[in-house]
## 1
Amino acid sequence: MVSSKSLKFFCVISILFVTIACKEKGGQLALPKLGSAAIDFTCQDLKGQTWNLEKIKGKVVLLRFWTDWCPHCRYEMPVIENYYRKLNKEGFVVLAVNVKQSPQVAEAFAAQFDVTFPILVDPDGKLAQRYGVHSIPTNFLIDRQGIVQEIRVGDLFKNKNFMEGLLKSYFQK
Amino acid sequence: MILSILICTLILFPSQGSGNSEKPDEVITRFQNQKLSIKWDPLTKAPLIIRGIESNLLEIKNFSKLSREEITHAGPQLVSKYQSLLQIGPDQLKLKGAEKISDVWYVSYWQTFQGVILYESSLGFSIDSHGRIKSLGAILYPDVQSPVTSRMSHEAALKIGQSQIKDFNKLKCRLMAESVLIYPVRKKNSVDYYRVYAFNFFPEKALHPATTEGGWAVFVDSQTGKVVLYETLLKPMGCCVPEDWVPPKPEEMKPKW
């Protein structure tokens, strides 16, 4: 028979152990860096499909964090859609992660802009946090080897040649 | 009789074919002799998406000659035409944005209630160069149950809002935006509506374009003073773009190779 004191002691030790373990794990979480492997994730899109790095292996991926209230997210969505339609068959994937909004908001937005690329939903912002996103929009370009080749905070087209030049290097024959 | 059966069949069974095979959540229905594919919001019972099948939702005549302001009238026209489906009136729209990108106009609106914007509501669509609107996307709340006046003063609400921010003075926080909004809180089977004072606070250092510091949003219920939303804000980059920045021309934004 385990005494009440022993049980309490065991519980306290267990809680302490779990707390320390989580903190250590949290402390070790590195943010994505240029030239390093992209951080794996699991996230669902509006159609219920699950996305992770394995699924996009061998593709050039634009991972974009956005919201419907951000002016540049609105303005650039159709532009990105143009690139996606042109380059999708060649292996260009856009994963547009809606941050901290309801799936309904994301869905209505996608319909308004005739977006055909996957809209991922991150209602509690965990994926955004994992990727160190503090500003909207934030873009990560991940190459076919799964390496982060570009981190771009803000709009992609402020410098009109930026996106063009970047994608050209992957897709121009 | 046959027509009734046909209508029921179309409503009850999710669309298949007709170019809609990828949209299993949408149902095909007939509305004023027009075939539409609609996805409904199960909570509000309002449409999330309406697509015209075999016809457009709206065709605007002499579209190429219209000014930007005239183009923004498309929203009220669309709502008038589909009012019984959308369950709001044209006078409830407030323009959110209208941009032309690659010959296509993208127009969106907020829904208002007694002139007050509903937080995260929207109705938007694209218009092609021929003036055709093929579909719309929306977050609408047809049955808003909200007070039309505030019981507490703005000053009192602001104090409550500020008190939510730890080290408000030390961080030199500034009130960057404020408004009165209707804040719909989506619950499992219903929506609660709050008329709120909405405040956005940013610490001084967050305002520098080079920092990634965010701020806070605090929504204070205008009836009870209760804080109904408190969350950290991601920094909107749109706020920090220089005013003299000119968006690139549509032809510069198309892939060139």
## 2
Amino acid sequence: MTRQKVLLRHVESGGVVDADLIDRIDLVIAKRAEDGWQTYLATARAEALAAKRPFPDLEHDHWEWERKVSITHRLLPYPTLGIECEGQVQGLMLLETDGHFARIATQAGSPVVYVNLLATAPWNLPAVTDPPRYRGVGTVLLAAATTLSVDLGFKGRLGLHSLPRSEDWYERLGLTNLGSDSNKQNLKYYELTPDQAQNLIR
Amino acid sequence: MSSKKTMTLNLTDSEMAALESLSAEKDVSKTAILRQALRLYQVISVRLQLGEKLFFEDAVSKDKKELVVL
């Protein structure tokens, strides 16, 4: 497990804060994320119910990070990355480095790093917490995945299937939308080319 | 990202030819091919140690042949 410094934006103050980007998260971090996120969500749901406010149906609160990390944390083809800031896990990502190949015609068949799971803590989601605590968690993680792709010799190529609420975000980051994938619950498939990767990590 | 260590690798002509061919076919460097081979070898080893088996399946007949890994 290694750590490097990254910056996140603290929304309420408008300033930037130091955070740690963790390469290869372990079970302790996965458990801390799972416990912290679920506890926060339970409280936020209860408060919304008491105040008769609607509560969003989150698309990614069932990903069982602890179980997934326990399966993958020693396996080289499944890197995990996380971000910690002020003692709390702000986001997690599970990647697959092998067995996924590009679909865009100009790079078809070339290997890509596949983003299997990418999640930010619930207090960073505007739909749950307004204003959210930190911004930039997902962008830092996706840039780290792109950097890993470069490091592996894949020239920054990434592939991923997006949950519906994240589609706009991936498009704003410059990924190419290749349409619904009937082999993956009709989720839209997105890909990053080497040129797009340069824009994301510069 | 993790720091890297450098090593010298001695390959025969035929091994180097195979590596260069894969590197060109997959559009990645020779180092990338060998690092990928290590990743795949490790995950296969772990799964075999857990008692699983690795098979190739014929696309038409669906016949399966076990791949024996050292």
## 3
Amino acid sequence: MKQALLAGIAFILFIAAAWAPQWLVFLLALALAKGLVVLGLLLLMRTGLVSFGQGLYFGLGAYAAALLAHRGGLADAALMIVAGPACAAAVAAILGLLLARYREIFFAMLSLAFSMILYGLLVKSSTLGSTDGFHVQVRQLAGLALAAGAERRVFFAVSVAIAFILTWVLHRYLASHWGRVSTAIRDNELRVEYLGASVYRVVYANYVIAAALAGLGGAFAALAVGHVDPETTYWTTSGEFVFIAILGGTGNVAAPFLSAAIFEALRTVAAQYAPNVWQMALGVAMLAIIMFLPGGLWTLVRKRAS
Amino acid sequence: MAAVLFDGIVYSSWLFLMAAGLTLIYGVMRILNIAHGSLYALGAYTAATLGGAWIAAGYAPAGTFAMLAAAMLLVGAVMGPLIERGLLKWMYGKDEIVLLLITYAVFLILEDVIKLVWGVESKMLPEPYALPGNFQIGTLVYPVYNLVLIAVAVVTGAALSWALYATRQGKLLLAVIHDREMSAAMGINVDRVYLITFTLGAMLAGLGGALTAPMIAVSPGIGVEVIVLSFAVVVIGGLGSLGGAALGALMVGIVRSVAVRYWPEGELFIVFFVMALVLIARPKGLFSAPEARKI
């Protein structure tokens, strides 16, 4: 039943990739990219950690992918999709050694500091277009040239396929030994240590996985938007990811995508009709969720199902 | 070199005003208040509006300094109790990270409130900046206003430490910082301490904003960068420590002004780089007491 539903959603998204109007493809592609970042955040939250710096890996992924096309002369989407998460994971493998020792507010603040370091560098680097960033144009996927106008649709279809596979993998991971230890760490870290599991190693692994997912999201976002700028690493972008994660809740691996889609759709509407109260609406929604629906929107889905 | 140092100290003074409020609120209430940046922006807008009205009414321009003080009091007295009594009061006991998210929500709301009240055009209040005239260090000319900023920061710091360590109220506050439940059990009105602390913190943010208003064009979004900078300062110093905030402000201020002089590209980078280094060496900041782990 569940599998059928998911397959149905995937099918609809593939149809959308082929026939939906350009703006809808753009919206969905961006929602999917952000959903991937938030999927990583979900994993961290399951471990009891909230990162206010996922923008670091989102931006790294976007820039790594974009630079490959812009400077490396390798304007191939398949390579970019690999480069984004690889670069993010490599950086996370180093920073994670350190961050895995931090918890709560200090984890949030140190991850924020690292993302702001990258922001500070990008903003001032004139070769990378400083605050304006630069454009990326890619019309090639794994050696195949794509027709003008169709490339975004193809990229979106690819991202749907990859996102589905990764979401399923993460679902399996959460149900596995390490996944269950993660939740135990959130509940009581000291007891987990007493039971003989290495908290440090699990936190480290989850941190790197989350970063890779954020890097992949960044690469997809660069492909979808066709532009990268330092704003991707700013703390407000990281805050947006945290918002989407809270909105969806950590109840299910599908929640980040649902929530990201709602977020992007509302943003599109708000940008049109009420640009000056958009943030206020976000803030009020966030307070309402924290107060009345601590499990996020997913609790509503679950209630209906049961 | 003296000029770089002076710039650094001026910048530190401003940072300290922002960080003192933030660290005070965290120390007492365990809330890392992201909305601090919005309170700063509110202070700047209120100051610009009040000062502008004062000038428009044709009174002596020197009175704009009184308007800056009025802006600080207004922001503290209105926003402090409003946020604490209206919202935070209902949230105590939640995780620190949830409280952080709540203040993030407040920050988002206030950002738009500011746009709705003051519009998106920038506001100016140049009078207090130009009025006290200039002075010279070597061949460089500086506005006296910078000295005012330093003086305010020093006086605020001294007044805060006097109030904290030498008065009865301050000692009650320190008791709450040390152990909230025990203080409540000993008969301290913790609710009131929270209200006073948050109001004081809001007032300090308002003061920071009001003093900045004459130096910049007050426009939407000014609180966004301020908040991460003040975070860096308090985290370097150790959350909840007033002395730490002062030291953190000095470090960040001077490091930044050295960077601006010799390596302008690194201006923002260096601040957070220092923060990361400090956190790596001392995970809870420079002035932090060890805490017992609870099982």
